Amino acid sequence: MKKRLLQILSVAITLCATSTAHASMLEGEALDSAAEIISWVVIIVAPLMAITIFWIVHVMPEKIAEDKGHPQAKAIQVLCLLSLVFGGLLWPIAWLWAYTKPVMYQMAYGTDTVDHHHGKKETPEEATPEEKPLEDQVQALRDQLAQLSLKLSKPAIAEGKDA
Questions:
Q1: Rounded-to-integer distance, Cα 133 and Cα 127, Å
Q2: Domain boundaries, the chain
């Protein structure tokens, strides 16, 4: 009995000694301002961030395919765009496709990578040493063409003098 009375007394003292609880450290106008800021963040910033992250994740397989020189990079790009339309359901397929090696393409063309720039140079100074002899050949052909056109025009001039 004494034990029971002691327990009841300790519970009563604990309940009387506690202070009131506050859900927030802010009060009044400050609490309203904080709630308004948080609501704007949730309404505007969070969806924009979610859309941006969703977009970046869905473009990643396309970028990976281009960086790896995947011969089917354009098809992977289309699959990424379709995945955006279908809510991301096709994205794992595009991701796997970007990392696979195209076996049939390698059997047909002897390589499993492609230059997506198709050998186009941005400026003529970027020509490789293999391309320079080709430029020299083109210049030689232009010189020959100029000489031939001169030879063809000389007889016409000589015939004009005879007449």
A1: 10
A2: 36-116, 127-163
